[in-house]
């Protein structure tokens, strides 16, 4: 029967050939009838049980009548394992009972401990925290081969050696060198700084600005370089190019120039059609052109997820794409003479850049005080209707630019934020939570920045407000039992139970310490730098939030595939039956992170009183 043991499952796939042989040589087999106790609370375990066939429940130990019902924490089925925690500690605290005829492999406790002693990754999987487990799964899990190309680094053979020109070289000579080396751009070194000159820059300088050919090339270079590190993911380079509307990034290691990465090189690594959508967005001249590009985004996200791309990467790319679609539509529909006087902002998950599948529109317009534009509301109504046609659902709460309540001059916008903060009732705090995640995507961003900076100054040292604002974090129960296991109800609302407490708790801290980033992951990074979150806790919260988003996204896509063309009516529901043992373990660990964070916020903002 040892040959029937599947060594491909985590964590047993972490064992080398000799360790696998040791495991197989020492496996035992247990046969259990329905209702038979495999492991009773208080007993010393034989070892780790791995189910070959059948179903086992883990339940609490209840004193009193044997007929008294017991609360079941979790069920284990084929190829699930259980009992490792009990074996390591020498005593079981729960009962494990066969719910049907069951056959198990049993790995003796001594062999388990020997394998943990010889293999640190194997030991870490049983003993370490969520961050360590997630890293092990990411590096050694069964899906790693699906997306190795997505984990490619910038340094993995795509850095080009640039044409480097020194200050003092004439435009004429620099152009000849570009032609000889068949380069379409050059880097210019001026003192300790680097600048870039593209073929377009040369044409503008010579044809449009009539620059003499003997002019120093350094005088027409741009020194505000968009850079990336050699150890960063190549996928991030694609995101940056999409966000910045550029075709190359400069690779810097500290102050050391490493080279250039071209868009064509990045695209050669990717089999998805993200670049095609990006190009179609940029080239769109009409609303219809833009609509065709926008309708490919859901298929793009499905393709990325099916290839094993982490949800955070997919979120970053989609946020960049959605931002470009809205900015392009704004450019097409809003008169050019009005654009410097208005600012379109996106809010909520879109403002945080944490939207994956399209969710409700949350947007607003802030405009210059005293602006005279009689057609403004009519134009914005049309803008909202067009976004709906593009596949961006309307907001049930009507938080959209088609609602005049979300189209305000700067003075009224700041007064509205101040009134909400002063009132502190449920609706005001909900609106404020949406509004403080705002990010400008089109028009004049200076208008938005003025409102944001005013509000952050307004809230300074307002402890009463932050106590009220933070309270929403603890409104929803963490779906864990008294003993710290998943509540087994068939399904779980991952937004209420996991995502919202982290997002809103971090939002509160970011607002208190005037962190301008809106993305939750970036807010956490800045709060670490400010000393408000410990690095260890930050890593755990990042892993937990990433896991919640990944599980939610996968089940959203599954439901969309089953109901093709329909709208997912339960986007935040995780069906626990669809998770394997490893995913349930990771989910349980992640929810413990949430529980600990909520305790921290309760003490910090006096939420228990």
The main sheet comes to: 4 strands, antiparallel
Helix content: 40-55%
- Distance between termini? 59 Å
Give the beta-strand count.
20
Gyration radius, in Å: 28 Å
Could you describe the 3D structure shown?
With 609 residues, this protein is of the alpha+beta class. It has 23 helices and 20 strands. The strands form 6 sheets. A 4-stranded antiparallel beta sheet has the order 1-8-3-6. Helix 6 (171-180) links the parallel strand 9 and strand 10. The longest helix has 28 residues, at 535-562. It is globular. The model is unreliable at 140-149 (pLDDT under 50).
What attributes does this structure have?
alpha+beta; 609 residues; 15% strand
Concise structural overview:
Strand 13 (248-253) and strand 14 form a beta hairpin.
Q: Can you lay out the helices and strands and say which pair or pack?
A:
Blueprint: H1 17-26, E1 28-32, E2 37-39, E3 47-53, E4 56-59, E5 72-76, E6 81-82, H2 84-89, E7 95-98, E8 102-108, H3 109-118, H4 120-127, H5 130-140, E9 164-166, H6 171-180, E10 185-190, E11 193-198, H7 199-208, E12 227-228, H8 234-244, E13 248-253, E14 256-262, H9 263-267, H10 274-283, H11 287-294, H12 297-306, H13 311-333, E15 342-346, H14 348-352, E16 363-367, H15 376-390, E17 407-409, H16 410-423, H17 426-435, E18 439-443, H18 445-458, H19 463-470, E19 491-493, H20 494-512, H21 520-529, H22 535-562, E20 573-575, H23 581-604
Parallel strand pairs: 9-10, 12-13, 16-17
Antiparallel strand pairs: 1-8, 2-7, 3-6, 3-8, 4-5, 4-7, 10-11, 13-14, 15-16, 15-18, 19-20
Helix pairs in contact: 1-3, 3-4, 8-13, 10-11, 10-13, 11-13, 12-13, 16-17, 16-18, 20-21, 20-22, 20-23, 22-23
């Amino acid at each position: 029967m040892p040959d029937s043991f599947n060594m491909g499952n985590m964590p047993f796939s972490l064992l080398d050939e000799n360790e696998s042989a040791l495991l197989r040589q020492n496996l035992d087999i247990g046969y259990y009838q329905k209702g038979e106790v495999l492991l009773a609370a208080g007993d010393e375990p034989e070892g780790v049980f791995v189910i070959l066939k059948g179903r086992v429940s883990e339940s609490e130990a209840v004193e009193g009548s044997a007929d008294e019902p017991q609360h079941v924490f979790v069920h284990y089925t084929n190829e699930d394992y259980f009992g490792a925690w009990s074996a390591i500690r020498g005593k079981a605290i729960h009962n494990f009972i066969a719910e049907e005829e069951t056959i198990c492999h049993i790995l003796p406790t001594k062999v388990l401990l020997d394998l943990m002693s010889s293999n640190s990754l194997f030991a870490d999987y049983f003993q370490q925290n969520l961050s360590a487990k997630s890293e092990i799964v990411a590096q050694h899990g069964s899906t790693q081969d699906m997306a190795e190309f997505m984990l490619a680094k910038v340094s993995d053979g795509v850095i080009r050696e640039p044409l480097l020109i020194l200050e003092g070289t004439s435009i004429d000579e620099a152009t000849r060198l570009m032609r000889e080396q068949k380069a379409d751009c050059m880097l210019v070194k001026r003192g300790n700084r680097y600048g870039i000159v593209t073929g377009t820059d040369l044409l503008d300088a010579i044809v449009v600005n009539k620059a003499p050919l003997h002019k120093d090339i350094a005088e027409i270079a741009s020194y505000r370089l968009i850079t990336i590190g050699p150890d960063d993911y190549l996928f991030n380079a694609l995101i940056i190019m999409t966000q910045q509307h550029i075709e190359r990034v400069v690779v810097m290691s500290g102050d050391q120039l490493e080279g250039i990465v071209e868009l064509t090189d990045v695209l050669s690594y990717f089999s998805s059609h993200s670049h095609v959508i990006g190009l179609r967005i940029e080239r769109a001249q009409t609303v219809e052109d833009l609509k065709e590009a926008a309708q490919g985004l859901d298929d793009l996200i499905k393709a990325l997820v099916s290839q094993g791309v982490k949800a955070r990467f997919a979120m970053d790319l989609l946020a960049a794409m959605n931002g470009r679609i809205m900015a392009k539509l704004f450019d097409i529909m809003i008169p050019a003479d009005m654009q410097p006087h208005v600012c379109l902002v996106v809010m909520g998950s879109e403002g945080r850049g944490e939207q994956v599948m399209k969710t409700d529109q949350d947007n607003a317009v802030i405009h210059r005080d005293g602006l005279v534009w009689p057609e403004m509301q009519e134009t914005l109504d049309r803008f909202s209707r067009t976004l709906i046609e593009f596949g961006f659902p309307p907001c049930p709460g009507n938080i959209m630019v088609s609602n005049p309540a979300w189209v305000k001059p700067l003075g009224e916008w700041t007064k509205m934020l101040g009134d909400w903060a002063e009132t502190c009732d449920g609706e005001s705090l909900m609106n404020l939570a949406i509004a403080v995640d705002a990010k400008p995507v089109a028009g004049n961003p200076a208008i938005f920045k003025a409102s944001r900076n005013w509000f952050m100054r307004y809230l300074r040292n307002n402890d009463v407000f932050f106590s009220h604002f933070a309270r929403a974090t603890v409104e929803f129960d963490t779906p864990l039992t008294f003993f710290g296991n998943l509540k087994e109800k068939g399904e779980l609302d991952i937004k209420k139970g996991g995502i919202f407490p982290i997002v809103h708790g971090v939002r509160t801290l970011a607002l208190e310490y005037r962190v301008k980033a809106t993305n939750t992951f970036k807010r956490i990074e800045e709060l670490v730098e400010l000393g408000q979150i410990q690095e260890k806790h930050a890593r755990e919260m990042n892993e937990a939030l990433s896991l919640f988003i990944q599980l939610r996204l996968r089940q959203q896509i599954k439901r969309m595939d089953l109901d093709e063309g329909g709208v997912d009516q339960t986007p935040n529901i995780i069906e626990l039956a669809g998770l394997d043992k490893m995913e349930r373990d990771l989910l349980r660990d992640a929810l413990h992170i949430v529980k600990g964070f909520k305790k921290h916020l309760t003490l910090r903002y006096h939420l228990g009183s």
